[in-house]
Amino acid sequence: MNRVIQKLLSFPKNLHNARKMIVQLISFILLVFLYSFSFLLSRIGRKIHFFKYGAGKIMRMVYALDQGDKDGVSQVYLMEIAFKNMIAKKTRTTITIGGMAIGISFIVFLVSIGYGLQEVVVSRVARLDELQQAEVVPGMSLDLALNDETIAKFQDIKDVERVLPLIAVIGKVSYQDSVSDLAVYGATHDYLKYSALQPIEGRLFESNETVLDVRNISVLDPSEQIAVFGEKISSVSMNITMGEWLKVRESPSLNAKVIGYTKKIEGRNSGEQVWGDAYDSENESDMGKDAEGKEMGKWVHAEFLLWEKKSCNVSKDSECEEGQYIVQRNTDNTQTFQDGYVAQLFMQVTQVDKSEEVLGLNIFENTGTLPVVELLDESLTTKDQPVKTVNIQSKEKEVVVNQSVLQLINIAEKDAVGKVIRLSLVVVGELLEDPNIRVESAPLDYTIVGVIPDEGTPIVYLPFLDVRSLGVSRYSQVKVIAKTPQVLRDVRTTIESLGYGTVSVADTVAQIDSLFSNFRLLLSILGLVALSVAALGMFNTLTVSLLERTREVGLMKAMGLKSDEVKALFLTESMIMGLYGGLFGLILGIIAGKVVSLILSALSIVKGVGFVDVSYVPLSFIVFVLSLSVFVGILTGYYPAKRATKISALNALRYE
What we know:
Layout: H1 2-44, H2 49-65, H3 75-88, H4 90-125, E1 133-137, H5 148-155, E2 160-175, E3 178-187, H6 189-194, E4 201-202, E5 219-220, E6 232-240, E7 246-249, E8 258-262, E9 269-277, E10 287-289, E11 295-305, E12 307-309, E13 320-321, E14 325-327, E15 337-343, E16 347-351, E17 358-364, E18 372-377, E19 387-390, E20 398-402, H7 403-409, H8 413-416, E21 420-427, E22 438-441, E23 444-452, E24 459-463, H9 464-468, E25 477-482, H10 488-497, E26 501-503, H11 505-548, H12 550-558, H13 563-606, H14 619-645, H15 649-655
Parallel strand pairs: 3-24, 19-22, 20-23
Antiparallel strand pairs: 1-25, 1-26, 2-3, 2-21, 2-25, 4-23, 5-19, 6-9, 6-16, 7-8, 9-11, 10-11, 11-15, 12-14, 13-14, 17-18, 20-24, 21-22, 21-23
């Protein structure tokens, strides 16, 4: 028990001694650097007076910093003796320091490659400001939807700087004769900027508004819907009236070529209802008008069995029907079954089960930046879902598209900016106040102002208010930006405690850091093998040096040098060699890493990738390497130094 108490009482004293040792070690390293620099300048100063003057100034600084024992020899004196001994044995000293430098350079090179690869991967995954961002998705219930109230709640969280909403819906884009489905994101300029969307052509739109005047939302009567030639209206099934023959054309135009005739086939044929030229019809619901007021008609686009219209004899030809229609056959003698268009006349048309239509969105996260959109089945909605058509309220009518959209509608990137495309949007599900209805927008012309590099899912970016004007009251996700990357974890914890989900690119970066930490550890272990060999070489050098200097040690002791000072002399010599080995090794390792980077960069530039720096050495690692070098010097010099203290001055002078 008394021993325990004594240890506890001696702990402050031991702690004080430890601090004192650290201070002495740091001052020693500083003195070695200054003394070495002064020594170098003095050698140059033999011919240039300016350098000689500089060496004198530095030496005065060295003597001022020397905190050696006042009753014994100074640290500067020990360094002078150590340097003289090392210079006297130049070859041995060079080999020893060189071996140490090679071992250290091997560690520095391998670890710098590890750090460099980590920097390259992380820079490809995320920018620095993305490490303070998190994407928030709705909770599992409607009570945890993302709306204006939720945004205000997030904004009040400590250390939250910005909260930016996003709306994701399905849209249709029309350009010339092309009509395609795609994803549409309603976002502000700041949302796109913080998502690192850099246009390769044009610019981002400037709209940052998020507050909508609901009084300006106008609902269209179905009869007022704007028709677009060739645009799909819906998926349908048709039943042609018995005894009627219909003309099948190449396109939904009365001037298009007739490719054959068709009639009622057993069962129901499926196809698409599209807008085309107007025709005489008693049913007004089959008619519509385009943006210029021109009348349009509904056509059915499908694959049809075809007959050719020409006179024939029913009694003589089994393929003749009604004396004027004969089966149209292919080269392989099968009846022609071809894609075509028929006017919506003499037939019964019904919409197919809505579970066959693509009208929804699924938003999930995989990068922590923009959501990935997956088209869903409308079976998630009710079968007889009422449709409400509204006008998009847009001030600028500007959009940003990705490369995939341009490929979809066949526009060259360099020609895209300034092109006008027609968009219509569809909103279903939980984004609306009433999830039992479906909102569709009347088609509206937009001008492309920017193109971003993305060849994945076709995505069009609209100003946030344009999408919200469809009556959207809930948001698909929200981007929360913390004040610093360090507080992001606390912000996410607070949001998740409210029941919402969060995803951040910081999660990916943390996994990368963990992976490369293990990778660097493995590389360091490999480097330590080379360092161990170098340390053994230094140990051998110091031991041999001690044996050669036994008489010298005895003489110094006889002249009054204390045993501790003899020990300090040998430790000084070992630490100087360790420090110089570490310094030269650090320089060699960094140079080797940069050479590898230049070689890889030359190859990557040829392939159009650009400069790649796979070598990076942080300041903390530089300090660690120099500290490790000094520690190895102390470790290898400790035994020879301790052995030197046991040399008897009398015996050394008598026998040596």
